[in-house]
Task: inverse folding
């Protein structure tokens, strides 16, 4: 029963990480949070390695849970439930180690070369574990492939904000046409909404850092606030609507960021975004 529980725990975490709309996998959150805390303690000097390392460690945890869980299932049947090749004395090996060996070989879908299950129950369960191992491999590859489109969208938003800042767009809004202001603010609001959804559905993307400051949203997001304030001061209907639209998008972006930065409760958008920037700030390398 313990083995079955561990197997179910691991599979549930994989399901919640990949299939749940809000990416509510408990084990992966613990892994990413722990690695992030260590990296932050050293001023994020490891740079962008935390995110990829978190994914690799999480996959290893999933594999370990399946290997140990299935080993516990096999344990009562080792060695009597297996037929060993000639020249192999099962009595020479610890029972627990032998159960783990059988589990790992089956999970990796390598097939048996020196031991074959003979008990009917184990003969049925072994292919199930092999199928689980194949599914876990596929799920892990899918997870790695899913993570980079959201990161690209976040970097693109940061680059756009940096470009607007370089052009000093906020200072020029009074001289721009209402259509231009409306187009820019609505476009930014849409991109911010997309990033908000990405952070909600792929929470692990928060722990990925961008080495290029121009592509780091934590470094560029403050300009969205500055732009919103500048547009709000323009006395046209288009500007007022654009400012409210952009402000609403920033409010929604602050919702997932509150959870990551620990600024729950009544923390305002500016405080949350400042905490986001500080949480991703890197110490100078000496």
Result:
């Amino acid at each position: 029963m313990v083995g079955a529980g561990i197997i179910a725990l691991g599979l549930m975490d994989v399901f919640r990480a990949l299939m749940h709309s809000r990416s509510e996998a408990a084990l992966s959150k613990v892994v990413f949070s722990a690695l992030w805390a260590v990296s932050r303690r050293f001023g994020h000097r490891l740079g962008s390695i935390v995110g990829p390392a978190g994914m690799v460690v999480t996959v290893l945890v999933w594999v370990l849970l399946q290997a140990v869980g299935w080993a516990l299932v096999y344990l009562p049947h080792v060695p009597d439930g297996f037929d060993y090749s000639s020249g192999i004395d099962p009595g020479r090996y610890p029972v627990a180690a032998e159960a783990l060996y059988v589990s790992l070989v089956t999970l990796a879908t390598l097939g048996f070369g020196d031991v074959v299950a003979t008990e009917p129950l184990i003969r049925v369960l072994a292919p199930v574990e092999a199928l689980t191992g194949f599914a876990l491999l596929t799920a892990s590859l899918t997870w790695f492939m899913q993570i980079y489109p959201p990161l690209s969208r976040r970097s693109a938003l940061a680059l756009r904000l940096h470009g607007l800042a370089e052009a000093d767009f906020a200072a020029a809004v009074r001289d721009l046409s209402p259509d231009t202001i409306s187009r820019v603010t609505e476009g930014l609001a849409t991109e911010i909404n997309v990033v908000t959804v990405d952070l909600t559905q792929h929470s692990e993307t928060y722990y990925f850092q961008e080495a290029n400051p121009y592509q780091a949203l934590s470094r560029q997001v403050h300009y969205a606030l500055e732009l919103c304030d500048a547009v709000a001061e323009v006395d046209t209907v288009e500007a007022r609507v654009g400012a409210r639209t952009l402000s609403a998008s920033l409010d929604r972006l602050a919702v997932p960021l509150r959870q990551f930065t620990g600024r729950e409760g009544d923390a305002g958008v500016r405080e949350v975004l400042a905490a986001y920037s500080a949480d991703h700030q890197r110490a100078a390398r000496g």
Observations:
- Residues 148-279 form one domain.
